[in-house]
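step: validate -> pass
step: tokenize input -> pass
step: predict -> running
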Amino acid sequence: MKRASIFICFVLITSFSFAQTFTLKSKDVGGQATSKQVFNGFGCTGENVSPELSWENIPEGTKSFAITMYDPDAPTGSGFWHWVVFNIPAATTEFKTGAGDISKGLTPAGTIQSVTDFGQPGYGGPCPPQGHGFHTYIITVYALKTAALEGLDKNTMPPLVGYNIHFNTIAKASIVMYYQR
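step: predict -> pass
step: emit ->
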């Protein structure tokens, strides 16, 4: 009897230790941003196309998602927000390449792409100052416990969106890309 109890405990502990974690992936980003993702403006000449993103192992209780792309290396004293997306329906598990271009309508109904530090909503790719070295671009998907971030719209500044994301996050997953010019 004691041996059977120990075996059952081992099986339960082993089962829990193999639980899958919330994961973000991209077919377009492999560590370094390419000219496809790079901003077109501010002295940069990229295509400004947001990368494909997919996520899996959705945490229980997820009611919506948010996505951000942030550069902590920007010489602003507060980093630089390149993409801020929220109110993504819970059934969504992928953004297609180019979904950050609002005019293409590639995001699910109700999704809001808020203003970035470039001053406009939608994706704004990497564009660090010339000769400033490598910058880190952190793309994060957040599983949220609320279906919508109430009172926020496409004109809401990134820090306020981030504040609301922070207090509604169940789990988050990130990928990183680097770029210099």
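step: describe -> Residues 3-17 have pLDDT under 50 and may be disordered.
step: cleanup -> pass
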